[in-house]
Amino acid sequence: MSGARKLVPEPSIDKPTARDRILNVASDLFYHQGVRAVGIDTIIAAAGVAKMSLYRAFPSKDDLVAAYLEKRNLEFWERWDRTIADYPGDPRAQLEGLLDAITQRTLSEAYRGCPFLNTATEFPGSTLPADTVIRAHKRVVNERLRAMATAVGARDPQMLADQLQLVIDGAYSAGQALGVEGPAKALASAGRALIAAAVDA
Q1: With contact defined as beta carbons under 8 Å apart, do 65 and 37 qualify?
Q2: What is the SS3 assignment for the chain?
Q3: Is the dihedral of CA 170, 171, 172, 175 positive or negative?
Q4: pLDDT for 109-135, tens place per residue?
């Protein structure tokens, strides 16, 4: 029949794989409860997978923790890049906007600290796979802050990058421990003062 309607199949929605479910569940549990506090059996139960599925995807808990931090690293840089994109062609506004965004995040009700600092605190001086992810993340943060400090015309870009990273990490800890009433709310103003001192004569 010429007037018959052709049925167009609905686009299929990919279901998350067992690996995705495990990683998403572990990411939430590790962040809110701590890595040491969360056992493999808890993750398996929450993800609704068999133990063998977990160990096929992640040979050990150490590998799962590293994957959790890699996931958090990707999410971190996605937020960073979105913030920078809001201020095209204005390096100082980009840097100050970044400080504003981090301040808001540290004061949110769901905030439980920096996952990289939290994990490093749980495993001081370790040589676990997670440690490699943590050190790489913090190193790249410093490198990108230095590039932004250079773009705003800081006299000593490395010094400004170090100062900003120090106050950002301090805000991460204060936001977790003391919430909205704590000193984390001063991050943006402290950062602006450092930028002004580094740029202005």
Answers
A1: no
A2: CCCCCCCCCCCCCCCCCHHHHHHHHHHHHHHHHCCCCCCHHHHHHHHCCCHHHHHHHCCCHHHHHHHHHHHHHHHHHHHHHHHHHCCCCCHHHHHHHHHHHHHHHHCCCCCCCCHHHHHHHHCCCCCCHHHHHHHHHHHHHHHHHHHHHHHCCCCCHHHHHHHHHHHHHHHHHHHHHHHHHCHHHHHHHHHHHHHHHHHCC
A3: positive
A4: 889 999 999 999 999 887 899 999 999
b/e for 146-173, b at 16 or more Cβ within 10 A?
bebbeebebeebeebbebbbebbebbbb
Cβ distance 159 to 60 under 8 Å? no
Asked if pLDDT for residue 49 goes beyond 60, the answer is yes
Q: Which domains does the chain have, with CATH numbers?
A: 15-59 (1.10.10.60), 66-199 (1.10.357.10)
Whose tokens are 């790489």? That residue is 136
pTM exceeding the 0.90 threshold for the entire prediction: no
- Cα separation of 112 and 102, whole Å? 13
Are the CB atoms for 53 and 22 separated by under 8 Å?
yes
Torsion of CA 57, 59, 64, 70, to 10 degrees: -80
